[in-house]
Amino acid sequence: MGFWSTLVHGVTNALGWIGENAGSISKVIGAVVGAAGVRAMTEEEIAAEGNNVLPVLKSHIEAAEKNMKEEADRLFPAPAKARATVNLPALWTTPNSGSASLKVIPEIGMDVNRMLACEGIPTALGTEDPIDAGRTIANQMFVPPPPGVALAPGEFHHNAVDVRVGSSSRISGGIVYYPVPLGNPGSHQAWHSHTRLYYEPSIAEEKALAERKRALAIKRAPANLRAGASYNSTTVTVVWTDSREVDKITSAAVQNLINGSHGRIELPEPAFNDGTKFNYQFRTDVNMGPAEVAGALSTAIENLLPPSENGRVPRMPTVGVSNLVTYVE
């Protein structure tokens, strides 16, 4: 799904996903019609469209998203001290894990962290005992509705979110949604939704966050690459399953990699960080292959990982090469 793992963003993307995954398009239309607050098409009207309901379904999804945004405005008004806001209409493809022991699948928490990161909201809250914000929020957002509760036309389910860490910060808001049936009754359902989240940091939290960002910046080291010579641009991706402490560990590992390379590895481009996935574009001599760069970064991370018996620090991430371009001067 590109940037996201468990959600589809954008009306046309949602249309494409529904067309490929729905067991019954008619049942999907029935659910969307109720959310859009419009009349269902008759068989004669469907036939008049050449049996192609794509344009009508698109307009219904757009209307449903408008209605859900208005409901989110009503249910989750902005707090006076909100510093950042998440507003995201989306189709969640796997909102429930199907397991009694697992509230949501880990990838949903990672997607919530991506939402937060896009708005500059921390994905780990607290300092002494940090929490993974995305995972905590997801477990509140994706509580399934009571069995057998049917929605009247124009009605939606909703779940509120309220995550606090002491008196330093708060993320509040919630999700407005309706189920989209993908098969027989009782089988897997997607959620078409609107997510609204607010970030309220204290003054001390804002100051600490600014200082943390400056501390995470990678400092340049002397380079031995010859000006005008050909070079490799290797993009290395580091993927964690948790957001706690990982920005500090990853940045420190990259800094150690550069400092210990004796000028053979540069980082001329800014990093790309969505809370749990970090992309770095390293510049090296053409004689240094991408696997060598990724392996060196993996070792640097492993050397920094402390014992995690208490579960505070996540396990070793996945480190791999996502792109390689050789520039010939």
Give a quick account of the main beta sheet: strands, pairing sense, barrel closure: 5 strands, antiparallel
- In one word, what is the shape? globular
Domain module tally: 2
Q: Order of helices and strands, N to C?
A: EHHHHEHEEHEEEHEHEEEHE
N-to-C CA distance: 36 Å
Q: Count up the helices.
A: 9
Low-confidence stretches: none
**Largest sheet, order of strands side by side?**
1-2-7-6-5
Strand content: 15-25%
* Mean pLDDT across all amino acids: 87
Rg (CA only) = 23 Å
Beta strands, count: 12
Assign the structural class, choosing from mainly alpha, mainly beta, alpha/beta, alpha+beta, or little secondary structure.
Answer: alpha+beta
Helical coverage, percent range = 25-40%
Task: Summarize this entry quickly.
With 329 residues, the protein is α+β, with helices and mostly antiparallel strands. It is built from nine helices and twelve strands.
